[in-house]
# Entry
Amino acid sequence: YVEAEVIMEAIEARRGNQRRDGSDLQMLGLLSMMHRYLDDPSFPEELKDPLEECVLNMYEPGSDAMCCMTESQQILFHTCEILAGQLYPDRIFPVLTGHQARTGTNAGQSGQWHRERGERMAISWLRKRGTEGLQEWDSNCYFEQDLAALAHLADLADNPEVWELAATMIDKILFTIALNSYQGAFGSTHGRTYAPFIKSARLEATSPVSRLMFGLGALNNHFMGAVSLACAKRYVLPAVIERIAWDQPEEMWNREHQGGESGVDKVTYRTPDYMLSSAQDYHPGERGYQQHIWQATLGPDAVVFVNHPPCVSDENSRRPNFWCGNQVLPRVAQWRDVLIAIHNLPQDDWMGFTHAYFPIHAFDEHELRDGWAFARKGDGYLALTAAQGLELITQGQSAYRELRSHGQDNIWLCHMGRAAQDGSFSEFQEKMLGLDVSFEGLSVRFSTLRDETLYFDWERPFTVNGEEQPITGFKHYENPYCTADWPASEMEIRFGDRSLTLEFDETQGS
# Structure
């Protein structure tokens, strides 16, 4: 059953001056449909000519107002160019771009030329991101677009090098999601995200992918990545990655470096009852954008994080906004189940506060006492405090979801716990209140529930029991399943008696 009107609307959105940021996703959908169904006898004849015209007049980067600067947009462009060139190898694509568009000259290149160029650029993209990781690390919005493009390459590209590399990159992204998820919630730090995605894991764009591939997560309106993977007959999820997604060790400590030399060093600590994840020492004091620096996850809705808002709006068009991103990035260090975030705001900061997302409705129990906020979900516990004190907001849109702390210089401290280690929820609270916490300016000394003393400040190294602990310069991956240097042309992933080797050099394979 084909709804021709819907397809024509997508074609019309690609014509003339209507091409907008995001219409590359529409083109990917049209090309996918054409590759799979154009020769089907029941395909509507009246759609074939408009589709052909649409593809032959497809844009190139820079030909209109669309953005093609992010990693996900780049691989989408390359994928569309490959698939279009495969459809019409001998036809001329009359595209006006850059200088040609200004001078009125015609590009006049064949589909085969476009396919070969797309393949070169896609291979370059895949090798660089495969060996170094993504600058848009753990992005629960852009991972969906990456997976949609890669699934089409893995299934429809004719060039074996392209589709093998694409399948290997899918393995790597799914491995990363499995490592940094808790019960299907991709509760990692994120290089790019939006406010709805971090306030509930049920709304994440990666959640349907986790549901499809691992049986964890939730279905929602972000179907592009999941449908693309479901349609890819040539891609099969390796069993070792599925097992890692389901694994629930007593503790899992993961350290990663993602992106280029100036990329991110991140950590994730996970138990059967909670997960804590953060970006370590990530450009402190600089202006942020859509980075989600740290998060504690007790359940899909029971999430806690802190940010420095630049405004009161949480609309996606504001980047950063009230809940997503930071006007000024904090300095963060995490040691397993304890996290310290230091905020050093300019004296003229007009908002004048940092705040925590603390959704009381999502917890089984909560308690605010003696300067601490406590929460329980199942057998997982959380304790949160700030050097400048906490105020529960009880009015407005964030009522009973926000803990606000005023002051330009502030330190937030988060300590996780669980029944198996810390007894009942009330016992956990009493133990926390008995700990020694010393705030002084932009420094803190803290004795943890694990008999460790942490020290951290705005400039000096992070120490545990007096010994310096590195918070930058990590390997590409270092966890119980995989250890790989950065950059990594090869990664070996192991679980039990199963292993998987991912290769991104010229002899790639998986």
